[in-house]
């Protein structure tokens, strides 16, 4: 007996349920873009290296090109389309807009989804690879430019808008960050 290679699944995206049949090999990225017309999430490398396809799954960032749609059932998925509050931009979106945290904008949805998680992770006291004192009792490290660069390092920007991206994340996190614009971010 031949095994079925497709199933009907229900995805919970931005607070709405979507039921659709998918081939079991369909990535979450392709389900979002090709099946549900949620094209804000971008495809860059399609192999987990550029971060353009970053979404939030249960509040944690994930590259949707490496996630099978069938494995995302019963998870809370947030894409860039679900970040704003109606017409009001999220503070992270507003900071990217105000500080020109983009040029062509292709990487921007992924950058913003990552930044949302970075701010949460930092506030929760998660250390990064550049955190000097990782003892739990040390608490959240200062959110320096180096911390932001490291925490956002999974999101590439081919336009090189890194200086403004760091500034935008710092603004959204209300961190007092000095960015060396001569050296680049
Ligand atoms: S498209 Fe997913 S990481 Fe590049
Ligand atoms: S703004 Fe163009 S790739 Fe980042």
Write a short abstract of this structure:
By secondary structure, the protein is an alpha+beta fold.
Number of helices: 5
**CATH first level of the largest domain:** Mainly Alpha
Unreliable stretches covering 5 or more consecutive residues: none
What string, H for helix and E for strand, traces the elements in order? EEHEEEHHHH
Distance between the termini: 57 Å
Mean pLDDT over the residues: 94
Structural class: alpha+beta
* Subunit organisation of the chains: single chain
- Global outline: globular
Number of strand segments? 5
**How do the strands line up in the largest sheet?**
2-1-5-3-4
Q: What's the name of the CATH homologous superfamily of the largest domain?
A: [2Fe-2S]-binding domain
Strand fraction equals: 5-15%
Largest sheet: 5 strands, mixed
What small molecules does this complex bind?
A: FE2/S2 (inorganic) cluster
Number of domains: 2
Could you explain the architecture of this structure?
- The protein has helices at 28-35, 91-98, 108-123, 145-151, 162-172; strands spanning 6-13, 16-23, 54-57, 60-63, 76-78.
- It has 185 residues and is α+β, with helices and mostly antiparallel strands.
- The chain folds into 2 domains: 6-82, Beta-grasp domain (Ubiquitin-like (UB roll), Roll), CATH 3.10.20.30; 91-172, [2Fe-2S]-binding domain (DNA polymerase, domain 1, Orthogonal Bundle).
- The chain has a 5-stranded mixed β-sheet with strand order 2-1-5-3-4, sandwiched between helices.
- α2 crosses α5.
- The longest helix is centred in the middle third of the chain and has 16 residues, at 108-123.
- The relative contact order is 0.14.
- The model has no long low-confidence stretch (mean pLDDT 94).
- The structure holds FE2/S2 (inorganic) cluster (2 copies).
């Amino acid at each position: 007996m031949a095994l079925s290679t497709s199933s009907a699944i229900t995805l919970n995206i931005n607070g709405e349920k979507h039921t659709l049949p998918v081939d079991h090999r369909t990535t979450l990225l392709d389900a979002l873009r090709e099946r549900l017309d949620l094209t804000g999430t971008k495809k860059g490398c399609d192999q987990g290296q550029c971060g353009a396809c970053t979404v939030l799954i249960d509040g944690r960032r994930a590259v949707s090109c490496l996630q099978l749609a069938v494995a995302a059932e019963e998870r809370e998925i947030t894409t860039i389309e679900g970040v704003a509050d109606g017409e009001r931009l999220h503070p992270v979106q507003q900071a990217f807009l105000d500080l020109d945290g983009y040029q062509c904008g292709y990487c921007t949805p992924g950058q913003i989804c990552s930044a949302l998680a970075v701010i949460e992770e930092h506030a929760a006291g998660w250390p990064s690879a550049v955190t000097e004192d990782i003892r739990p009792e040390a608490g959240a490290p200062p959110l320096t430019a180096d911390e932001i660069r490291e925490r956002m390092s999974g999101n590439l920007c081919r336009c090189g808008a890194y200086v403004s991206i760091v500034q935008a994340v710092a603004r959204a996190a209300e961190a007092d960050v000095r960015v060396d614009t001569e050296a680049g971010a």
